[in-house]
């Protein structure tokens, strides 16, 4: 059935090894993606914590500005009104 001395069990074994290598590679890629997401989540949490600390020192209006700035990576260039106070 097979030529050049290749047996059916050799082909099956090679196929199984190839499938295993693919699964390992997929798992490693998934692990790397999870590590990146974890790092990003940690960084965002730290930014939020720093913003909350500053806001506690400056008051609620600062909290709104700090959180908006940190979460969206932009400074506010427009005016917002909060309880009649322009921020």
| Domain tally | 1
Mean pLDDT equals 77
Distance between the termini: 81 Å
**Structural classification:** mainly alpha
Q: Uncertain runs with pLDDT below 50, 5 residues or more?
A: 77-87
Provide a compact summary of the structure.
The chain has helices at 8-58, 60-72; strands spanning 81-82, 85-86.
Structure in words:
This protein has two helices and two strands. With 87 residues, the protein is mainly alpha-helical. It has one domain. Strands 1-2 form a two-stranded antiparallel sheet. A hairpin with a 2-residue loop joins strand 1 and strand 2. Helix 1 packs antiparallel against helix 2. The C terminus is likely disordered.
Features:
rod-shaped; single chain; mainly alpha; disordered C terminus; 87 residues; 74% helix
Question: How does the SSE layout of this entry go?
Answer:
Layout: H1 8-58, H2 60-72, E1 81-82, E2 85-86
